[in-house]
Amino acid sequence: MAAKKPTGMKRQTGTAVLHENGPRKLIEFDASTLQALELLGRDSMKDLQELADEAFRDLLKKHGRPTSLKEALRQSTRQLPANDQARGRKAR
Q1: What angle, rounded to 10 degrees, do the helices at 31-44 and 48-62 form?
Q2: What are 30-79's pLDDT values in tens digits?
Q3: Residue 20 in contact with residue 8, Cβ under 8 Å?
Q4: What is the per-residue DSSP string for 10-73?
Q5: Is the whole model's pTM more than 0.70, yes or no?
Q6: Distance CA 16, CA 22 (A)
Q7: CB atoms within 10 A of CB 17
């Protein structure tokens, strides 16, 4: 008898599983960390996914990485527009 694929899952690619809502990753926690996360989730009325989303957003922000297309485009714009003079040069 073949194992049934869980409902809503599409296909597996490497360690990521593509799901209806997007790709998924399997992350392993030690028992004490998982217990602390579950307690924090209950205290803040958030599920583990919401805690993980917040943690990864904070990590990306800490390292200066954009979390959205809008932020990525904003970061990619130049600090000095092409027609501005460089600060070290004086006009004659």
Answers
A1: 100
A2: 999 999 999 999 999 999 999 999 999 999 999 989 888 888 888 887 55
A3: yes
A4: EEEETTEEEETTEEEE-----HHHHHHHHHHHHHHT--HHHHHHHHHHHHHHHTT--SSHHHHH
A5: no
A6: 10
A7: 15
Tell me the C-alpha distance between 87 and 66, whole Å.
Answer: 29
Give the C-alpha separation, 24 to 4, whole Å: 18
> Could you tell me if 58 and 48 are in contact, meaning their C-beta atoms sit under 8 angstroms apart?
no
Tell me how crowded residue 46 is: count the other CB atoms within 10 A of its CB: 15
Cβ atoms within 10 A of the Cβ of 33, count? 10
Report the largest interatomic distance among the alpha carbons of the chain, rounded to a whole angstrom: 85
